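Why do we bother with holo predictions? Because pocket geometry can differ from the apo form. Keep that in mind while you read this record for nicotinamide-adenine-dinucleotide.
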Amino acid sequence: MEIGKIGIVGAGQMGTGIAHVCAIAGLDVTLQDTNPDQLLKALDSIDRTLERQVSKRKLSAEDKQIALARIHATGDFTDFGACDLVIEAATEQEDVKRAIFKELTPHLRAEALLASNTSSISITRLGAATDRPERFIGMHFMNPAPVMQLVELIRGIATDDATYEAIRSLTEDTLGKQIAVSEDYPAFIVNRILMPMINEAIYVLYEGVGSVEAIDIAMHLGVNHPLGPLALADFIGLDTCLSIMQVLYEGLADSKYRPCPLLVKYVEAGWIGRKVGRGFYDYRGETPVPTR
Ligand code: NAD
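The structure, written out:
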């Protein structure tokens, strides 16, 4: 199956990065979001990222313009009829994703494939909420998508071989990424391992074992992680971290996955990380300052 036209739902940090990766790989992209400001932000961010590559001579100015011209931003699904594949990358909440699939699928061709970039939610359950569970798959890009080499692929119970093969080939051959295949269990491989570590770092802060800076420097220099866990949580988005912990807690019914109350408090305050300028650090000044 040839995939040349991609639809992306959600123009947040992941939708933006996925649009960038697809456009650079020569695919036509229709990028949709219900928030018009977010669409403008996405186009501006892709423009600036590509410009940095031009200034480093990794991309020609002409190729930058060609890639940008491949991305078409829209507020609704009327232009999705020509898409070969739609990747859903909206907010990590099951009810939001289900509502999107309900509204989106009547606009799609019968043969079109559908993927979700969810970090944690059951692909089988999401697929069952669509009209095409056999052509539905998990395609979990890492953040930032243009930089990170991995895409986790997750087959739901109904995902057929042709869909898996088309998405594997797109990911490896067209987008040039590496894949890791995960069974469909809560949070898959990457976040099943990563998110409990981040949640534990937040417990370490909550219990007063270490300060924000001490925790991050300990894991950065002590374990050689490029980012400390609290800075990484801010980068991912604390709302997304909390949603993933809730999926782990509910899906695996084990108290070791209970979200730290301090994580809940930050999300309730709206201090959800870099994307709003404040999380465990305040990013509004010259350098990030811990908020506790
Ligand atoms: P984000 O908050 O940056 O963006 C979410 C976007 O979805 C927003 O622009 C919002 O306007 C849009 N949206 C919400 N409801 C919508 C609707 N009904 N229709 C269209 N758009 C809608 O979140 P993100 O970090 O980009 O995460 C998006 C998805 O990618 C989530 O499923 C998340 O779990 C997953 N993911 C996130 C990361 C990460 O590090 N943040 C990494 C891999 C995967």
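The pocket of nicotinamide-adenine-dinucleotide is lined by residues 9-15, 32-35, 38, 89-92, 96, 100, 117-119, 140-143, 236-237, 240, 275 (CB under 6 Å).
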